[in-house]
Specification:
With 192 residues, the chain is an all-alpha fold. Helices cover 74% and strands 0% of the residues. Helix 4 packs parallel to helix 6 and helix 5 packs antiparallel against helix 8.
Amino acid sequence: MSGYLDSSGHVSASARRADAQRNRERILQAARDLVHEPGELRLNAVAKACGIGQGTLYRHFPTREDLLAEVYRREVDELVAAAPRLLAAHEPLGALAAWFERVAAYARVKRDVFAAVEASVWRDLATHSLGPIGEAVELLLAAGRSAGTVRGDAEARDVIVLISWLSRLDDAELDARAPRLLSILIDGLRAR
């Protein structure tokens, strides 16, 4: 951090905040990668993977559940934020199909995080993510209904129920089946 010294020889507060934010991002990415590994996610393995001390990790995430909950929340936020960006770049049905590709990656993280935390934690995470995900689905469906490409009776809850099975599949089956099954779902949502 010597490159962050101000004229008085002290590390500036903004440099400390930027460094802390970079550490937080590295921790979250390492945890997201390691949560897929067999066995329990160990915080010392996360710290080692991102090259920081355990004290730094614990300052950001005091418990394993705190870290895993943030990994999941981040995944939900990214999934939800993708919906309007995809609508801006694609026609509605294409945006929905592209969003479903992201759903498969989200399902893998959801499955692994929920398997690693206690039931009370995952119930709370699921409850808080359902609203934003449902809103993203409704945004995509409404655009498709307006364009006449999505059937008029399709509801966000229908889609959520149908995609919920993804988080129950192991990696091999998810890789093998998700693209085809999500394509079938798109065909089922298509206006006739």
